[in-house]
Amino acid sequence: MRLSxxxxxxxxxxxxxxxxxxxxxxxxxxxxxxxxxxxxxVPAGFIRDEIxxxxxxxxxxxxxxxxxxxxxxxxxxxDELTQLLNVIYGNISIKPGIRVESLRLPPALSEKxxxxxxxxxxxxxxxxxxxxxxxxxxLKPMGLTAGELADVAYRCALGGIDIVxxxxxLTNQCSAPFAERVGRCAEAVGKANRLTGASSIYVANITxxxxxxxxxxxxxxxxxxxxxxxxxxxxxxGAMGQIAGDDSLGLxxxxxxxxxxxxxxxxxxxxxxxxxxxxxxxxxxxxxxxxPNFGGRFSFSREECAGIAAGTMADMGGIKAxxxxxxxxxxxxxxxxxxxxxxxxxxxxxxxGLFRHGPDLLQNCRHFRAMVEQYE
Amino acid sequence: MRLSxxxxxxxxxxxxxxxxxxxxxxxxxxxxxxxxxxxxxVPAGFIRDEIxxxxxxxxxxxxxxxxxxxxxxxxxxxDELTQLLNVIYGNISIKPGIRVESLRLPPALSEKxxxxxxxxxxxxxxxxxxxxxxxxxxLKPMGLTAGELADVAYRCALGGIDIVxxxxxLTNQCSAPFAERVGRCAEAVGKANRLTGASSIYVANITxxxxxxxxxxxxxxxxxxxxxxxxxxxxxxGAMGQIAGDDSLGLxxxxxxxxxxxxxxxxxxxxxxxxxxxxxxxxxxxxxxxxPNFGGRFSFSREECAGIAAGTMADMGGIKAxxxxxxxxxxxxxxxxxxxxxxxxxxxxxxxGLFRHGPDLLQNCRHFRAMVEQYE
Lengths: 376, 376
Fold this sequence. Notes:
five-stranded mixed sheet; elongated; TIM Barrel; 2 domains; Alpha-Beta Plaits; alpha/beta; eight-stranded parallel sheet; 19% strand
């Protein structure tokens, strides 16, 4: 067996009492994530030399904390996102004290994982917003009828919100069944566009088991939806990638962080914000990634959020840069500080706060839009 | 709008400085997981009274630690596993200090989520093993050819292993392409069965993006595989459920814990072993759940593993009990202690350790089989 010699690399943050212990942990990752076999029994030759991961370097970065880069043959990932993630963090997700910091993929692998269809430039072009920050809100609360949600959608689009998405908790509840909801909401956003001349889109939440998710995507597209919301920790990262890559759909995908928190909130293990919300979400085909902003009702720090933004645009070969879409408990007052961190390459997501700013939703939206117009 | 009045309930472990703070956190969960809307703006009527979650009780269980039961209208979950999980732990996965301890579903919901096709009884019947503990091993290491893996499969089945599965890292690598591997391995296990008269099965790892996963399931079934291995954190819990529920496939499903660790290894947040590996994996259709046993090279405690076993058989209406399949760095010497914890309703998974016990794999398998025969 001959392998290509091409390798991808992962930086892991490791905890260890000593350099020797940290190196032993890094070596353990090399085996655990590939052959999962007793070291002494690994067959000599290309399995031992190339299939088993390789510690490229290890350095101490703090007290009992080390950073190691480990490389793996691209053939171990077999050109699939699910297996790439398995090699990066499958079994070792169960071993405390190991955190994935970042990924580096050679062209041989990044070309096989298509990533987002639109990315930043494509989404700007679709929305006809060349320069200013984009605006994003969520239809809620659960329990409203399809007609009531469509009315909210209409006012948001009329008020200048570029992306009007379902709240991630709206699926197919009896209060607003999927097909009726997406039909009415898409129609409402279209009607607003005809009045404003804008190109706002309604984004339908299609998160479900995979076959049903494809079914809902088709219904939504036929009804005039302009994109899809997927919570990949619920639906599967590969399932999101399949929606993004489906040429018969051809619409942008927005990733929602529901059920994802466990990967990031424990600083000593899991996956870094940079790698998970940035790099991995890109590889899984999202054009924008929603996550909780610093200073809101969740716990991400300003530094972690800046890390996500960096991960959405870090060089990954041909994989397009995507938009960070920070949200979660944000209010209009926080927009200037967010611009200081993200610059204009951002989609501001304001949900409940948009309803709370003042009694008139349309006016709230216009106020919000005016605030970002100055960054045109 | 009239709701049914049926509710499901979740026990959450919460951290809080005081009872008041813990209650405020519980109340926050009620809103965050349903309407995700400022409390003062939640519409009066059934949305406020029934859609918003309800704190049923809250009790102090330790220093700054509380247990709360929160109930939700079954309509919020809209009869889908993905949305049920979203209500249980979607956004709050991003808030530290909240852990899901257990679920309680009314028949109105458990009847909609079919759960496993076989369960413990069905799998025993399929394997023709009425009473003793079952045996399970993994084909490895990655890098072997399909023929070499089939040879390992043959010896394992001949030696009396009931379930011979692909290692979870075997997908479609060039060293052993999927179709060739499953064809050869299924044939090898069939050949061994003809010699032994047993009903061992070869279980193919089909973990991939959803459409490809269905494709591989069909290929594997046609080739004579007797079950499917799925890593649901990579493929999606809903995707696993879809494979389990597909009548055209009709084979057992085994769940692998790759990429799942982040949900459980941080004791102050995430999901309990009982709920995640036990209850949720059952709801997602697995007939057996693989997880790292206590005392192996992973970190789960004896108590956590006993919790998993309890979750695999706790009353969940019509959802069948499934098998715990503890593995990970186990050796033959540990079998007696494992029997003390699990009793005979267990599938022992021994991977690398089976190869290490002695130089002759067939003899190792027979030794292992003899050890459980006494529990017939």
